[in-house]
């Protein structure tokens, strides 16, 4: 039996019909309950009450619980506490295309929850948003089982991927998210008479160039100087720039300074009133504070700059609608180490030889005492420059 509920209403104003309130749901537990809820709506509200003091989490949890509860009433016409594993599979397919559109989708606008035109969806959910929705709902069902309200979690039967060792690189940005970061940086004020705003833009652009093109750790940025850039000629007489990086565990490595990186260095130095190219052994820090100071920024200060950029890009993503929330949350989790991991991942995706990636990121010790560059180093420089670009 399907309810006559034509226009779904928000969770806070919803009033369930007796036959769908879940008091007789087939998945109700028969033992002692840890919550006082007698019906599905009260049980969901008890789950949400745990996160009421964290607005973003509360809104995301409420949204997913609300969508499922309304769908269960209208589509299969059964209470939440009677949903089966098969029902949840159907619901996940529904998320990819909520139909009928007039009932579920708010026509491209975000109406207030008290507006009768409010709808729980703004359009189909992307695959990542579908996955995020099911993660949240799995947490809901697991909690209701633990609270003694439900007998079992229908989502626990979902196919589990074969156990395997965790991937070595997990904290990285896919190319579309990396593009969002670059777009945000390029949106910062630069054509302005305010000198500090211009400096902030060029500093962010240069810092992210270093972290991504150079694959540098934040400690390698804060502890290095521009005087460690140097140029050597290869066997064909072609001049190639490199950055000598004192790295982790007192190891040093040579990072290819591509033409693109050197252009960005020159732009940053020119903005700071410095010659385009650094002098040998120049002690200017790789990244400078705003203003006249020439002191190196601390690791904490660099972390703050990077996190601020990620937060700004995430904020712009959230403005696009609910389907971007999961992607924005990923950006908000990102730290200053993520551009390094992103660089390695993107180089691998671009068919850069894994041995060259290893050497670029300093995953193996390098001989840096030689006064000349070996042929293998020249190949590494050429391939890095051709296949690993930031493309501002």
Automatic annotation (TrEMBL):
Molecular function terms, GO-annotated: DNA binding
Cell location: Cytoplasm
Sorted UniProt keywords: Cell cycle, Cell division, Chromosome partition, Cytoplasm, DNA integration, DNA recombination, DNA-binding
SUPFAM superfamilies found in the cross-reference section: DNA breaking-rejoining enzymes (SSF56349)
Core-binding (CB) domain boundaries: 38-145
Domain Tyr recombinase intervals: 168-386
UniProt xrefs under InterPro entries: CB (IPR044068), DNA_brk_join_enz (IPR011010), Integrase-like_cat_sf (IPR013762), Integrase_catalytic (IPR002104), Integrase_recombinase_N (IPR010998), Tyrosine_recombinase_XerCD (IPR050090)
Matching PROSITE patterns: CB, TYR_RECOMBINASE
Protein's name according to its UniProt entry: Tyrosine recombinase XerD
Gene name of the record: xerD_3
């Amino acid at each position: 039996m399907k309810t006559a509920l034509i226009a779904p209403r928000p969770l806070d104003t919803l009033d369930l019909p007796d036959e769908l309130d879940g008091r007789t749901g087939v998945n109700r537990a028969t033992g002692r309950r840890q919550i006082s809820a007698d019906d599905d709506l009260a049980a969901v509200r008890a789950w949400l009450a745990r996160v009421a003091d964290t607005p973003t989490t509360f809104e995301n949890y409420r949204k997913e619980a609300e969508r499922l509860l309304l769908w269960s009433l209208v589509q299969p016409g059964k209470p939440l506490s009677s949903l089966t594993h098969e029902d949840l599979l159907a619901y996940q397919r529904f998320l990819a295309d909520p139909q009928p559109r007039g009932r579920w989708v708010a026509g491209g606008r975000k109406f207030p929850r008290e507006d009768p035109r409010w709808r729980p969806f703004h359009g189909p959910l992307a695959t990542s948003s579908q996955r995020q929705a099911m993660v949240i709902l799995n947490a809901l069902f697991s909690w209701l089982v633990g609270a003694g309200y439900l007998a079992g979690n229908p989502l626990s039967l979902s196919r589990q991927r074969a156990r395997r060792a965790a991937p070595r690189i997990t904290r990285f940005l896919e190319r579309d998210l990396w593009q969002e970061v670059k777009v945000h940086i390029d949106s910062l004020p630069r054509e302005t008479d305010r000198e500090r705003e211009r400096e902030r833009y060029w500093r962010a652009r240069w810092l992210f160039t270093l972290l991504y093109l150079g694959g540098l750790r934040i400690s390698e940025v804060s502890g290095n100087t521009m005087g460690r850039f140097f140029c050597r000629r290869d066997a064909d007489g072609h001049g190639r720039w490199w950055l000598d990086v004192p790295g982790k565990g007192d190891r040093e490595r040579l990072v290819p300074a591509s033409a693109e990186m050197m252009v960005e260095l020159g732009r940053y130095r020119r903005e700071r009133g410095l010659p385009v190219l650094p002098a040998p052994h120049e002690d200017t820090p790789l990244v400078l504070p705003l203003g006249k100071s020439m002191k190196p920024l601390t690791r904490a200060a660099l972390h703050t700059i990077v996190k601020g950029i990620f937060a700004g890009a995430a904020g712009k993503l959230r403005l696009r609608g609910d389907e971007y929330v999961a992607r924005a949350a990923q950006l908000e989790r990102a730290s200053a180490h993520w551009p390094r991991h992103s660089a390695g991942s993107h180089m691998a995706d671009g068919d850069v030889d894994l041995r060259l990636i290893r050497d670029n990121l300093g995953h193996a010790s390098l001989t840096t005492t030689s006064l000349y560059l070996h042929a293998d180093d020249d190949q590494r420089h050429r391939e890095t420059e051709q296949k690993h670009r930031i493309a501002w």
